[in-house]
Structure formats: C-alpha cells, structure tokens
Amino acid sequence: MKLINTYTYEIKKSKFIGYYYEIDSKEEADNIIKELWKEHKKARHIPYAYKVNNMAKKSDDKEPSNTAGLPIYNLLEMNNLDNCLVAVVRYFGGIKLGAGGLLRAYSKTANECIKNVQD
C-alpha cells in the first residue's frame, strides 16, 4: 500500500478529506479503511471505492444511497484506474448538504485527488 495523494475540501462547515492509495489486494484496501477510522475517530462517514485484481467495491458508508461510493467509483472508471483505493473522510459540520450537495462534495474531493496524481 502506498499513499499517493490527499486533498481537503470544506463546504458549509463540513470537511472532506480525500485519500488516494495504490493497492495490491482487497485485504490491503480493507486494512486502509480500518486505519482511516482509527486516525479519524470523530469522522461521521468514510465512503470509498476501489478496483484491484479485476474486482471492485464501493461503499456509501451510511450516506444516502449513491451519493458517495458510486461517484467515487465512477471517477475510477472514467480515468481507467486500477489497483487503487480512493476514500473520502467526512467530518459533519452541522449543516445538511442534501443529496446533490453530498454528491458534488464527494465527487470534487475524489476528483481532485485523482486529477492531482494524473497531472
């Protein structure tokens, strides 16, 4: 596992921290998610998506359906990325963003992580 990039985005007092890792296995991805939870104990959600060894997984981590994990996964697909994990840690700021706001915030954070690596 290798941390490649991070990106932080804040909107309406919520903080989104994106992480982009190179990974070699599903187990590695699962361990990274566990470590992110240990590091960010006060985070509200850590949705993610990964692709490794011809398999993929995504999670909204209790955010409204398809507002977090799916847009992250779609970015992996659009950029033809493999053997990678993108996770976004969310610290809730007390103001609800709505489904559209969540989708935009998770997409922006993940996209900036990916874009900065590809530049």
Question: Which tags fit this structure?
Answer:
alpha+beta; single chain; Ribosomal Protein S5, domain 2; 119 residues; 5 strands; 5-stranded antiparallel beta sheet; globular
What this model shows, in words?
The protein has 119 residues and is α+β, with helices and mostly antiparallel strands. The protein has a single domain (2-118), classed as Impact, N-terminal domain (Ribosomal Protein S5, domain 2, 2-Layer Sandwich), CATH 3.30.230.30. It contains three helices and five strands, in the order E-E-H-E-E-H-E-H. It has a five-stranded antiparallel beta sheet, sandwiched between helices. Helix 2 (69-78) runs parallel beside helix 3 (98-118).
Could you tell me the CATH topology label: Ribosomal Protein S5, domain 2
The mean pLDDT is 95
Radius of gyration: 13 Å
Q: How would a textbook summarize the main sheet? A: 5 strands, antiparallel
Strand order of the largest sheet: 1-2-5-3-4
| Second rung of CATH, namely the architecture | 2-Layer Sandwich
Spans where pLDDT lies below 50 across 5 or more residues? none
Helical residues, percent: 25-40%
- Domain count: 1
Strand portion, in percent? 25-35%
**Which structural class best describes the helix and strand composition?**
alpha+beta
CATH class: Alpha Beta
Outline:
The protein has 119 residues and is α+β, with helices and mostly antiparallel strands. The chain has helices at 26-39, 69-78, 98-118, and strands spanning 2-11, 14-22, 48-52, 55-59, 84-91.
